[in-house]
Specification:
This protein is of the alpha+beta class and 527 residues long. It has 14 helices and 27 strands. The strands form 8 sheets. Strands 1, 2, 11, 12, 13, 14 and 27 form a 7-stranded mixed sheet that branches.
């Protein structure tokens, strides 16, 4: 149990940083993953993930929030991957980068070296894009990014309706400036999920050790220097030593929780929990935010994927996926994305739309599928104002953290969500889509006035499973890591996941977290 580097978590950031640290063949790298193997059908077959992985404790941490006062005490279900590959093994597989302005804003906030022109090479280095390399995309990298491999007539209808409603059609949603409507690209390889673990950790390297079912308890310190990690595996408590660095990549919930369990965080809270204080760092667990969103669900006049999972469908679509890498078995979470402005005079997009030919709803106990043909679109805010926090529920490392979303704590987010929900209805009412709609389930035709729209948002808004910000990067008093991703006030300790985002990116998180892992590996090598 002597290594050069220990990486806690094998998700998007952790797999990338571990793979890059190990690629020279010399550095001894240990990856600790609390979950099990990802070489299983519910992970590898995209459509099977929604049926058999999300909500399944064999693959999902199944976290829930504490009651949220900004939404009348509602609680949220928060799936997080507990499997090799982390949430990249159970996510929607959408390959979406943040806006250029997201990263330029980070740099302006004091995160020197994170402007878009500095991070774009790391996006390109990670990527093996089916459409080839150019100034914006990479080819030959470890992460396979491919075009949509399944088609549904209602996806094309929604795209056409979006154009009719004023959104320009774009061929590549990841080119600057972000805006318009188009088909997605997904982290897939020939229709199979291509998680961060498959991209970076599946390669056999004698200097890379990956331990599954290994749950970290705490970081071990010698003074203020991180020297190892204590974890449990097969019922035994084990200590691994790191000669050069410990990297936390346990996600926006796991990384702050592990820091606090290790005595790093707000000292008053640590003492309340009975955890000896190693370093008072008040920003740990603060700044929590997600992309708040609402759903638009309509019943339609033709079969959708949510009613096509009978045994005959499973056999036919499973064979098509296995033999040809095509068909409904390959479906990512959404087929069509759109980016737009809640107000026309805004300098950049602040809303995103996901559309899928699947009738489902996001509830406080997890996603549920409808038993009749339906389609679902989500509208979510890019950069919300509201902030929540993550705290310890107890000093037991096996206890879930206490997550307070405070999702609608700032009234400006309610107004933006109302604008997004209205835009979605306008798309569904455009002729290309309206001809297929049999009835609106959500929001429902009774929602018309401004007060009714605001009430609908408060009653139904949910974080769309993009948690971020809880170990934020920066130079202010609440920053947890510096611009080189080192935990402030400590040595040999880094964080590399969505928790370091000072402000969440304007899009899905996976591609951006892989870029963060790539950057962290370079920072560590340079150090």
């Amino acid at each position: 149990m002597e290594f050069d580097y220990i990486v806690v978590g094998s998700g998007s950031g952790g797999s990338a940083v571990a793979g890059r640290l190990a690629e020279d063949g010399r550095a001894r790298v240990l990856v600790l993953e609390a979950g099990g193997s990802d070489r299983r059908l519910p992970v590898l077959m995209p459509a099977a993930t929604y049926l058999y992985a999300i909500g399944n404790p064999a693959f999902d941490w199944r976290l829930t929030s504490v009651p949220d006062p900004s939404r009348g005490g509602r609680t949220d279900y928060m799936p997080r991957g507990k499997v090799l590959g982390g949430s990249s093994s159970i996510n929607g597989m959408l390959y979406v980068r943040g806006q250029r302005e997201d990263f330029d804003d980070w740099a302006a906030m004091g995160c020197t070296g994170w402007e878009f022109d500095a991070v774009r090479p790391f996006f390109r280095r990670a990527e093996d894009n089916e459409n080839g390399a150019d100034a914006d995309h990479g080819a030959g990298g470890p992460l396979s990014v491919q075009n949509l491999r399944t088609s549904h007539p209602l996806s094309e209808a929604f795209l056409r309706a979006g154009v009719a409603a004023g959104l320009p059609e774009v061929a590549d949603l990841n080119r600057t400036p972000q805006g318009g409507i188009g088909y997605v690209q997904a982290t897939q390889k020939r229709g199979w999920r291509h998680s961060a673990a498959r991209a970076y950790l599946w390669r056999r390297r004698p200097n890379l050790t990956v331990l599954s079912h290994a749950q970290a308890h705490r970081v071990i310190f010698e003074g203020t220097r991180a020297s190892g990690v204590e974890f449990t595996r097969k019922g035994k408590t084990v200590t691994a030593r790191a000669a050069k660095a410990v990297v936390l990549a346990a996600g926006a919930f796991g990384s702050p929780q592990l820091l606090m369990l290790s005595g790093v965080g707000p000292q008053a809270h640590l003492r309340e929990m009975g955890v000896p204080v190693v370093h008072d760092l008040p920003g740990v667990g603060a700044n929590f935010h997600d992309h708040p969103g609402t759903s638009h669900i309509a019943f339609v006049d033709q079969p959708t994927y949510n009613v096509q999972h009978t045994l005959p469908h499973a056999l036919a679509y499973g064979a098509l996926w296995l033999l040809a890498g095509r068909g409904p078995g390959t479906t990512p979470d959404a087929h069509v994305l759109a980016f737009h402005r809640s107000q026309p005079d805004l300098p950049r997009c602040d809303l995103q739309i996901h559309f899928t030919p699947v009738g489902y709803d996001l509830t406080d106990t997890g996603p549920i599928l409808f038993d009749r043909p339906a389609v679902t679109a989500l509208s979510n805010i890019h950069r919300p104002y509201s902030r929540g926090h993550v705290r310890l529920a107890s000093s037991d490392p096996f206890a879930a953290p206490a997550i307070q979303p405070n999702l609608l704590g700032d009234a400006r987010d309610i107004a933006t969500l109302v604008a997004g929900a209205k835009r979605l209805r306008a798309i569904f009412e455009a002729p290309a889509m309206a001809r297929h709609v049999l009835g609106e389930f959500k929001p429902g035709p009774e929602v018309q006035s401004e007060d009714e729209w605001a009430a609908y948002v408060r009653e139904t808004a949910i974080g769309i499973y993009h948690p971020a910000g809880t170990c934020k990067m920066g130079v202010d008093p609440l920053a947890v890591v510096d611009p080189h991703l080192r935990v402030r006030g400590l040595s040999n300790l880094y964080v590399a996941d969505a928790s370091i985002m000072p402000v969440i990116v304007s899009g899905n998180l996976n591609a951006n977290c892989i870029m963060i892992g790539e950057r962290c590996a370079d920072f560590i090598k340079a150090a």
